[in-house]
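Async update (no meeting this week)

Hi team, since we skipped the sync, here's where things stand on the single-chain job. The sequence we agreed to prioritize is pasted below, unchanged from the tracker. I ran it this morning and attached the output directly underneath so nobody has to dig for it. Comments welcome in thread, and please keep replies under the output.
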Amino acid sequence: MRKTAILVALLIGAAACAKQAAGPEPSAPTAAPAAPGAKAGAPAKSGGGGDLTSRLGSALEEYSQSSGGQERRVALGNFTFQDSEAAGPFSAYLKDEISLAISRNPKLSEVERERLQQILEEQALSLSGIMDPSSTAAVGKIQGVEGLLWGRYYVGKDEVELRLTVTDLGSGKKFPMKVAVSKSAVPSSVSFAPSNFQAYQAQRAAFGSDEARDFPLELWVDRGPGGVYRDGEKMIVGVRTGQDCYLKLVHISVDGQMQVIFPNKFDRNNKIKAGEVHNIGGPGYGFEFEMTEPYGAETIRAFASTYQFDDIEQVLAAADQETFSAVGAADAATIQGFRTRGLKVKAASSQSAGRSQYPPLSSQILRSEAGVTYTILAR
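Output:
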């Protein structure tokens, strides 16, 4: 099989084949850093002289002063390019700069990503929910982390504007901040947009807004929306639904090819129980998702139905030969054809439904669809 950008399925153990369990925006005017004790909700601004690390440190001062002298443990979320969920190499560069700024503040300390992920898994939470501006699901529930820092960056003609937010997980308050930095201060080897950003936008437009939403369907990757992975790192895809259903996961690669990655030859059971967090590609699935080149922004889309997909046998037969079942290019015609073919389900008669290998999970045909974006970078 031709090497694609994401996902190399690795068999874990001989008997582990089944589950066990828009354009650039103008830069905002810069201003002096917010004074300690400034009101939460008004963006702290930092600009002018000094390097990026010192400007980030000044912008973080308001949040650190709000602690009343107590040390605040801060985890870093994701930093995405403009109004997309994709991230360029600048995102990783920015994280390094923020980590350095936090290390220089005696009232702040950074929670490593691995520890944050462990905490989220223990409490059945995800970065997607925490970074949702309208969500308060995690407030007061995450022990060992007081704040989550995340945001976006906007590239203008001469400057890059950082629009960052610290979400205080104890109170739910959000501390917005803006930092402007000259593009000339960023190393020339660090690009801002993903290498395939235009193609990624075209793929997103091809999917359009024609999504079925008959029941709740949450989809995320373990590093949250806009998550960044390095070559060779593993990814887990999280799914939670409000309805027992059958599930298909489709991967759209950097080069715009679609393939069904779940179910696959290592795990053929695509029945999903409502209300539970399903970490697909995690422990108990018999396979892993490993990142490989080419690098850039990729998407996974989930398709869920209360009736089994009419092409499931073809999908599984193809997966037996090539691990994943190829769909074709992610253009409008292929996408519409896939939606029609994959979700065109027929109700079985009441007499035969009980004997079916794939019994209906509802008296009605209900369908839902969701997507998530992440980025792969070179090491």
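Quick observations from my side:
The helical segments are 52-65, 89-103, 113-122, 127-131, 197-207, 312-322, 332-343, 350-353.
The CA atoms of residues 73 and 145 lie 5 Å apart.
Reply here if anything looks off.
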